[in-house]
Amino acid sequence: MASNRAWALGPIVALGAWIAWPAMGLDGGESPEHAVTERVAKLETVRPRLAEAMSLLGRQFGNLWFAIDKANWPLAEFYLQQCRDVLAHAVVIEPSRTLTSGSTLPLQGMAQKLDQGYFNDMRTAIAAKDRGDAGKAYRNSMKSCMSCHAMFDRPFLRLRIPEAPPTDVIEFEPPGGKMP
Ligand code: HEC
Description:
Elements: H1 2-24, H2 32-46, H3 50-69, H4 73-93, E1 96-98, E2 104-106, H5 108-116, H6 118-127, H7 131-151
Antiparallel strand pairs: 1-2
The structure holds heme C.
Heme C is lined by residues 50-51, 54-55, 57-58, 61, 83, 107, 110-111, 114, 141, 145, 148-149, 152, 154, 157, 159.
């Protein structure tokens, strides 16, 4: 048993040593704890921000509109999944936020509501190749995105349907013309 545990801890100890090593200096002057704290603080300054994940979500969500509009169902399914993945990642990047009112709210609740609500409706409509229902779920999703923006002190981040796909190197027209 004990040797099993030692086996499992091996990689963790190795990782800790790897994190601590460069900051310790050759003379070993700094404590490993101090070195880890310093490295974590440094990594914190280069970690992705919520705004970056949201910009990507905005792009993928804009692309999704054009895939639905062109009834390119495999592409629509792909972009919807991209949106779901980015939204899930966004709440890991920033699990909660302190509002100007002083209260701190988790992001997870609103994200989950959108994912399990209108995004799910869209998935069903895309699978059924129903352009009308997919469009309806898309517009409802926009409202859900904006209610989260409003809840987190960003009521001015209103969404609209873009005039052209945000990604210009992807062909939105389905192969062989419009799909049924
Ligand atoms: C769980 C809450 C939440 C949901 C759901 C959400 N957003 Fe956001 N979004 C935010 C917050 C908070 C910001 C502001 C980020 C900041 O202040 O750094 C933001 C910012 C943005 C921005 C601006 C990014 C920039 O810096 O230019 C875009 C674009 C965006 N969201 C798109 C969307 C879209 C599209 C959806 C729905 C498909 C969506 N968001 C759903 C919380 C949310």
